[in-house]
Design goal:
This protein folds into 2 domains: 3-169 and 335-366, Quinone Oxidoreductase, Chain A, domain 1 (Alpha-Beta Complex), CATH 3.90.180.10; 173-313, NAD(P)-binding Rossmann-like Domain (Rossmann fold, 3-Layer(aba) Sandwich), CATH 3.40.50.720. It contains 12 helices and 18 strands. The chain has helices at residues 43-49, 96-99, 109-114, 162-165, 171-183, 198-209, 222-231, 244-252, 266-274, 298-304, 318-330, 348-357, and strands at 3-10, 18-24, 31-40, 59-60, 65-72, 84-87, 125-127, 130-132, 145-149, 153-155, 190-194, 214-219, 235-238, 256-261, 276-284, 307-310, 340-344, 362-366. The strands form 3 sheets. Strands 3, 5, 6, 9, 10, 17 and 18 form a 7-stranded mixed beta sheet that branches. The protein is globular. The chain starts with a strand and ends with a strand. Its cofactor is Zn(2+). It comes from Lysinimonas soli. Pfam families: ADH_N, ADH_zinc_N.
Length: 367
């Protein structure tokens, strides 16, 4: 049956989110209804709010939800009422990438995650009879309840606090998955990570799990670099005052075996490439506005012959990778809780502001 819910709606480009009451429609056979307990605030939400990435407005954003299953559709077998779940990205499940175990590269990823509606064109949300965009990343978790695509749902242990685990749905999985699923650094290897936000610090934590012996973090915020040291970085570089590329080569001798750019900034992308050792392996994970371009030195690129790739959502399968990160956390090996600050749902715009200013690494709003 339809129900009234509380949600944070994005009405206009660049405007603050508005807390309002919306109508949630009937659950579909391939959906799961979730009572949200908390949800992370991600840079991607801000990019859509500000019109940098596409999105149909008005819409309810949010794609790092965590909550409790309250109902399941007739075709859903993966979870049951009462299960604790984390909500990740959506995928079709039938294309070549999905069936090969790479759902983040689903052929239908853009419409399923940014389209603001179900595949049949309907939305689950409305206001005074007018449709409101829903199913952002299959979920639209800036709401007290959501009808969620089943492929966005990952069951997690009931022993871990739901107030913590929402960011595993996107940002933290992106950083950790880039290291553990894509780069796969050998024990004793070196890695440099540009950016100490939630994605960069999650990559750092994963590099510790992978037993990298040299972990270099680059940023311009001293407090974040200090935290990176506490989390396991062996070296930190304040790129306001130091030449990051020169320092990486000085620390490693030949350049880093692995590198990650979490910023999506052209200059940082170039630094990532130039920091690599011969035949090094680098990954871009930072989003940028369409049309953003970066350059490389072709001669040096040929001589060093690095591998440079891009990674979406950590190339992870949410239903297996998110529970794995929870297991690492509960074993004391992946303390991602150090990155999180919680906010009341009514303070969601402050959470966005604190994320953008760098005051908070990973904001989580709690219902």
């Amino acid at each position: 049956m339809t129900m009234q819910i509380t949600a944070a709606i994005t009405r206009d480009v660049g405007r603050p989110l508005e807390i309002t009451t919306l109508e949630l429609d009937d659950l579909r056979p391939d959906e799961v209804q979730v009572r949200l307990v908390a949800t992370g605030v991600c840079h991607t939400d801000a990019l859509v709010r500000d019109g940098i990435l596409p999105g149909s407005l008005p819409v309810v954003l949010g794609h790092e939800g965590a909550g409790v299953v309250t109902a399941v559709g007739a075709r859903v077998e993966s979870v049951a009422v009462g299960d604790h779940v984390v909500l990740g990205f959506n995928s079709c499940g039938v294309c070549a990438q999905c069936t090969a175990g790479h759902p983040a590269y689903c052929a239908s990823f853009p419409p399923l995650n940014f389209g603001g509606r179900r595949q049949d064109g309907s939305t689950s949300l409305s206001e005074a009879g007018a449709s409101v965009g829903s199913h952002f990343f299959g979920q639209s978790s800036f709401a007290s309840f959501a009808n969620v695509a089943a492929r966005s749902v990952a069951k997690v242990s009931a022993s871990v606090p739901l107030e913590l685990v929402g960011p595993l749905g996107c940002g933290i999985t992106t950083g950790a998955g880039t290291v553990l699923n894509v780069l796969k650094p050998a024990p004793g290897s070196s890695i440099v990570i540009f950016g100490t936000g939630a994605v960069g610090d999650s990559a750092l934590l994963a590099a510790v799990v992978a037993e990298c012996s040299t972990i270099i973090m680059v940023d311009v915020v001293p407090a974040r670099l200090a935290l990176a040291t506490e989390l396991g970085a062996t070296h930190v570089i304040d790129s306001r005052h130091e030449d990051a590329v020169a320092r990486v080569h000085e620390i490693t001798g030949v350049g880093a075996h692995y590198a990650i750019d979490t910023t999506g900034r052209p200059g940082v992308f170039r630094q990532m490439v130039d920091s690599l050792a011969p035949q090094g392996f680098a990954a871009l994970v930072g989003a940028a506005a369409p049309g953003t371009e970066a350059t490389v030195d072709i001669g040096a690129f040929l001589v060093n012959s690095p591998t440079v790739t891009a990674v979406i959502e950590g190339d992870a399968v949410p239903q297996t990778f998110i529970p794995y990160l929870v297991e690492l956390y509960e074993a004391g090996r992946f303390p991602f809780d150090r990155l999180i600050k919680t906010y009341a749902f009514g303070d969601i715009n402050q959470a966005f502001a604190d994320s953008e200013s760098g005051l908070t690494i990973k904001p989580v709003v709690v219902f």
